[in-house]
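Kindly inspect this one:
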Amino acid sequence: MRQVPNLFTLLNLFFGCLAIVQILQTGEGVMNYNGEEWKVYLPERVWWGSAFLFAAAVVDFLDGFVARLFKASSEMGRELDSLADVVSFGVAPGMILYQLLRIAYAAGPDGLDVSAAGLAPAFLLPMAAAWRLARFNLDPGQAYGFRGMPTPAVGLLVASIPFILLYGEPVVQGWLLQPWVLYLLILLLSGLMVSDLPLMALKFRDAGFRSNLPKWVLLAVGIAAALLLGWLAVPVVFLAYIALSLAFKPKA
């Protein structure tokens, strides 16, 4: 029974691999209208990749729960969890950003000829995730508070972007498919992961309401945002998490 939590962790990795396959399996074509007008068609499967990342997040939550249930926490499980998270919440979200940059550039003149240098910044996210997770493993003091943004939170924020593009308002879609917006997002998220920003962990220390107040507030914000904003609730909760963490000044 001691290996059951590790099997959940490997399932997290499995979903991360499936996500990468879906994200990178794209087709593209260019249509010529009367020899004058060009239109780019990119049937992306990024949305399936995002769905697998949300599945990976569920499994990532369950492996810790199962480990506590069976009292099977171990150093191997800790290391395995970080290795799986690098793939699911580092590499896969980086591939989403890579494809979004391709789509953003494709909408402009000579967009399909974008250089590798224009797309390479997407790989900053997996690099920052690896740094964040390696540092986390070396710091035993991050049980009830984090230094830097947790990698799964960043991964889920990026995974929500394709759904925002699919179901969101045209104004929001137009902003998200600007290369400079994506570059800023990559820099911001990567910087948050490698920063020393004190952020609360979402584990409950005890059954007290006052001691867990910021977590209950975050839950209420999440429910209200989901009902009112749809997929835009994910970035709203992300920002609320940072604001509540700073307001209550957790110790990492």
